[in-house]
Amino acid sequence: PAYAGYSLFVAEVASNFNQALTRAYLFDTQTDPSFQIALIEEALSNFHRYFFIMPTLARFELEVHGRVEAGKPLTANMLNELMSDLFAEGYGSTMTDDPERTGATWATFGHLFVPFYTFQYSTGISAAHALAQDILAGDGSAVENYREFLTLGSRVYPMQALQTAGVDMTTPEAVEKTFGVLSDLVDRLESLID
């Protein structure tokens, strides 16, 4: 039973960790520029979904819960407007969007029917890349720490399990490492298309 009930957060860390190591291996072994560009496109799509879309949905969810707790009614128009505003804030003035289309994004994500499900994606990808970066940098204890993390199952809280693996999600370090990975991907893409 200690291993059967691991959290979604732990699952997201393991999944994204495997993707990060697989991607690093493929970058090292597949030198065809077209293949590398396709690999970067896949990675950037993953980052966009988990590092931008999901946190935006988490902010949306938090705001909606706050409105419900304050006794304010929810309508489809209000939800669409909130979603559109959050995307406009995130994308900034450099991108033009269709508010009706982006506003309805909330209705396409069943994740929102499970309370506070979406925030686990961005934290999961951050923890995973922090762990992967340590291993790829040759940190000898990182592999053993990650194995220990996997064996903990649901015996401890996920944040505690991650601390065992060497990642402290109470600090910005994991997120900063993940932004570093994203920056490296953009740099690699620029060098391939120049």
In angstroms, what separates the terminal alpha carbons?
53 Å
Give the name of the CATH superfamily. Answer: Oligoendopeptidase f, C-terminal domain
CATH topology (level 3) name: Neurolysin, domain 3
* General form: flat
The topology string of helices and strands comes to HHHHHHHH
Taking all Cα atoms into account, the compactness measure Rg is 19 Å
Mean pLDDT: 93
CATH architecture: Orthogonal Bundle
Structural class by sheet pairing and helices: mainly alpha
Please describe the topology of this protein:
Layout: H1 8-29, H2 33-69, H3 76-91, H4 99-103, H5 119-136, H6 140-151, H7 158-165, H8 173-193
Helix pairs in contact: 1-5, 2-3, 2-5, 2-8, 5-8, 6-7
Protein traits:
194 residues; mainly alpha; Neurolysin, domain 3
Overview of this protein structure:
With 194 residues, the protein is mostly helical. Helix content is 72%, strand content 0%. It has a single domain (8-193), classed as Oligoendopeptidase f, C-terminal domain (Neurolysin, domain 3, Orthogonal Bundle). It has helices spanning 8-29, 33-69, 76-91, 99-103, 119-136, 140-151, 158-165, 173-193. The longest helix is centred in the N-terminal third of the chain and has 37 residues, at 33-69. The radius of gyration is 19 Å and the shape is flat.
